[in-house]
TrEMBL record:
The keyword Heme does not apply. InterPro entries: AMP-bd_C (IPR025110), AMP-bd_C_sf (IPR045851), AMP-binding_CS (IPR020845), AMP-dep_synth/lig_dom (IPR000873), ANL_N_sf (IPR042099). The keyword Nucleotide-binding applies. Residues 468-546 form the AMP-binding enzyme C-terminal domain. It comes from Vreelandella rituensis. GO terms for cellular component: cytosol. GO terms for molecular function: acetate-CoA ligase activity; ATP binding. This is acetate--CoA ligase. It comes from the Bacteria. Residues 46-418 form the AMP-dependent synthetase/ligase domain. Pfam families: AMP-binding (PF00501), AMP-binding_C (PF13193). Its EC number is 6.2.1.1. Keywords: Acetylation, ATP-binding, Ligase, Nucleotide-binding. GO terms for biological process: acetyl-CoA biosynthetic process.
Length: 572
């Protein structure tokens, strides 16, 4: 099967966002709706009878297939429930649930009704959930009985905005103060006229952790579907009917943009696995469901690498056509391992909650340079810049480190931080969005991630990107995870400290410490290599897979930890 984007340079030269808008159906007079593009537009085509969701329950690997038509009807029923409850278009609906089919119906039904949907991690504890509810003031909270009783029941009555708590799992009896959404949906009509929305009408509110203080709510509009659809087709190479598996939880932006919207607008079949990570189960899913497109996180890839080559070689993974990674930069070792063991390289891509969709990527038709973010998505203008007193100055020379900036104009760009207008304004310099990430661009136009602006280590005049140091450490066969920070030094300003977790069978002894430091010095030079290595059983990371370097630094230096609600260890 040929790639949707066979010639990157030619496609970019002919591309425009107006052209991309021609690839969606629209609702006439410039109106549109994300849910219409995901579901309604397919109802008069053969896609209606295609499987939209192939659901694998936590305790089973026998799939339950839900067609596009059935999912559309279920979403219509949820929209009618909102209508019957008096929920008005524009009000917010929060979702706090595990990966179950009715969560997907609730997301799409919310959008059909013209409400704004906000996903929350099911692994959040009560306080981060309450904090986000108080910031975003939803009218409706959609959750399960277990999560409600464990995380919501004690405080939800004290909130001023939440009028309805809808439980979307099978219930014998709904607890006081809640409604049985499953029963309400079963009783509601399966017909609903999806509301036509203006392109700039709010559709999604995604929370992202701040370095300190409260999380930020990034607001996205219905026009974002243009980016979702286009990047699904041309970056992730979705063809109608493909079996596609995005392992991201719908509680974060990838699980919404590329776990719901992009695959449905492109007419693929989504694998939805309710269970948490289990390497053997994952390989069986790839084999048994004949997954063609696989979008996963570097953390998961590293965990698979850690468990060796025997498991993947025992499975038939020949259906795989394209593998991509997101969540944090993908170390070169993982790209090489994918090619060697799975027969395909992982294609890293870069984007943020604020960008709403993929901005820089490696493509099926382009050479993958291990460790590189790739090249900008067609229609996206990216550059490297340095900040000045008057704003920013673009850096034209290749391989110079600066801040990654994006020129305004892509449809999924966030339209504001909720209740934080000044912070939103400060995210831009003229027409350029300031990402806060440091990068360099090589002579061929590939971008390379250096680190977060506040992660970069400044030592004896050197700018040291933690990712580069981590990548070298990860090349050692003993290393499973690595996180690198700068620690204060009276002479150098900062020196590099590495926190390392090891694969089974490797002792955390002084001999290994010296071996790792020697490897790093050999590869990076003494100015960049870590001066200190500390072994840890586990490193703090977010649910989306990012090593939380700021948390390592805060704990090392006794600083405030800031918002830790997305920390992976915050489980039920």
């Amino acid at each position: 099967m040929s790639a949707n984007l066979p010639d990157y340079e030619q496609f970019c030269s002919n591309f425009s966002w107006d052209q991309a808008r021609q690839e969606i159906a629209g609702m006439g007079n410039g109106r549109l709706n994300i849910a219409f593009e995901a579901l309604d537009r397919h109802m008069d085509t053969e896609t209606a009878e295609r499987t939209a969701i192939r659901f694998l329950a936590r305790d089973s690997e026998t799939p339950v297939d839900i067609s596009y038509r059935a999912l559309n009807e279920r979403a219509n029923r949820f929209a009618n429930v909102l209508l019957d409850l008096g929920v008005k278009p524009g009000e917010r609906v929060y979702g706090l649930a595990h990966r179950i089919p009715d969560l997907y119906a609730a997301v799409l039904g919310t959008l059909k009704h013209g409400c704004v949907f906000t996903p929350l991690f099911s692994a959040f504890g009560p306080e981060p959930i309450r904090q986000r509810v108080e910031i975003g003031e939803p009218a409706v909270l959609v959750t399960s009985k277990r999560l409600y009783q464990k995380k919501v029941a004690d405080w939800v009555a004290e909130t001023s905005s939440v009028r309805h708590v809808l439980l979307i799992d099978q219930l014998d009896e709904a607890p006081a103060g809640t409604l049985d959404a499953t029963a309400l949906m079963d009783a509601a009509s399966g017909d609903y006229a999806t509301r036509d929305m203006a392109p700039e009408d709010p559709a999604l509110l995604h929370f992202t952790s701040g370095t300190t203080g409260k999380p930020k709510g990034a607001l996205h509009v219905h026009d974002a579907v243009i980016t979702h659809h286009m990047t699904g087709r041309y970056v992730l190479d979705m063809h109608p009917g493909d079996i596609y598996w995005c392992t991201a939880d719908p509680g974060w932006v990838t699980g919404t943009s590329y776990g719901i919207i992009a695959p449905l607008t492109n007419g693929v079949t989504m694998v939805v696995d309710e269970a948490e990570f289990d390497a053997e189960r994952w390989y069986r899913i790839l084999q048994n469901q004949k997954v063609a497109l696989w979008y996963t996180a570097p953390t998961a890839i590293r965990m698979l690498i850690k468990l060796g080559e025997e498991l993947p070689r025992a499975h038939d993974l020949s259906s795989l056509r394209f593998m991509a990674s997101v969540g944090e930069p993908l170390n070169p070792e993982a790209v090489i391992w994918g090619q060697k063991v799975l027969g395909l390289p992982f294609h890293d891509n870069w984007w943020q909650t604020e960008t709403g969709g993929i901005m820089i990527s490696n493509y099926a038709a382009l050479e993958v340079r291990p460790g590189s973010m790739g090249k900008p998505v067609p229609g996206v203008e990216a550059a490297v810049a340095r900040r000045t007193e008057d704003g920013i100055e673009l850096i034209d020379e290749p391989n110079e480190t600066g801040e990654l900036v994006l020129k305004k104009g892509w449809p999924s760009m966030f339209r504001g931080y909720l209740h934080q207008e000044e912070k939103y304004r400060n995210s831009f310099s003229g027409d350029w969005y300031l990402t806060g990430d440091l990068a360099r661009r090589d002579a061929d136009g590939y971008f390379w991630f250096i680190g977060r602006d506040d992660d970069v280590i400044k030592s004896s005049g050197h700018l040291i990107g933690p990712f580069e140091v981590e990548s070298v450490l990860l090349e050692h066969p003993a290393v499973a995870e690595a996180g690198v920070i700068g620690v204060p030094d009276e002479v150098a300003g900062e020196t590099v400290k590495a926190f390392v977790s090891l694969k089974p069978g490797y002792p955390p002894d002084e001999a290994l410490r010296k071996e790792l430091m020697g490897q790093a010095r050999k590869r990076l030079g003494p100015a960049v290599a870590p001066r200190h290595i500390e072994f840890r059983e586990d490193l703090p990371r977010t649910r989306s897979g990012k090593i939380m370097r700021r948390l390592l630094r805060a704990r090392e230096l006794g600083l405030p930890e800031g918002d830790t609600s997305t920390l992976e260890g915050n489980r039920e």
